[in-house]
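User: I'm preparing a small set of examples for a lab meeting where we compare how different chains pack in three dimensions. I only have the primary sequence for this one, and I'd like the structure in token form so I can line it up with the others. Please keep the answer compact; I'll paste it straight into my notes.
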Amino acid sequence: MGVLDGKVAVVTGAASGIGLATARRFAEEGASVVAVDLDGAKAADAVAPFGATAVQADVGDPVSWGAIVDACRALGGADVVHLNAGTTTGQPDITQLTIEQYRRIMGVNVDGVVFGTRAMVPELAQRGGGAIVVTASLAGIVAFPGDPVYTLTKHAVVGFVRALAPRLEELHVTIDAVCPGLVDTPLIDGEVRDALVASGFPLVDPGAVADAVLGCVTSEGTGAAVVVQPGREPVAYRFGRAPGPRQPGAEGRLPPGWLADPAGERRR
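Assistant: Understood. Below is the structure token output for the 268-residue chain.
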């Protein structure tokens, strides 16, 4: 008996890296997996050994989510969603950033999360609730000068997750982000990877991120940004509280749930 027996799980960016590791992990836990990737043929080959359903789709295109929803409904519905698809610009110099680079990364890293959440929340709610996990990055909670626009997208994702979590609670839907350090995936350029390995810098194994994703799915918490680093247990990042106005009692006039900590516990 797996913890996801009888569940249907969607994983985007499932042809390699974190997505493939998570799709495999979900299948091991008994889930029927819908594996989504822009390269549908590669995804089909990658997930064939554990019997997942491959779907070719551009997650940044809102129309594409109709096919993903249909694939879930063919299996009975959707219970778990891992919005993992992502890319980088590889451009540290903002003056050299092209429009094409910018549109591409925003489409995958931000639009894919927003459109995916919009499409899948009604499906989860119809099943009585479920879980969404978004792949962010350590660059979603710290500054990463190596790719400022990638950092922008991952900060956006973390903010989206934390802001949306209280809204989804009434639907019995949780939403969390995983924020791994440098992961050993095809997103890391071969030369860069070789240099990191030669220097002894530890890379995160995709399987460790998959385990953290499963932990979010099976947790009762919501709104967390879970950091995954080599040699450490996954841990929810504790965000500091922003300074409020000095007027006595001003904070008490904020709407309920306006301020939330990473575990989704509302503050007044």
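A couple of notes for your slides: Residues 99-126 form the longest helix (28 residues). Confidence is low (pLDDT under 50) at residues 262-268.

User: Perfect, thanks.
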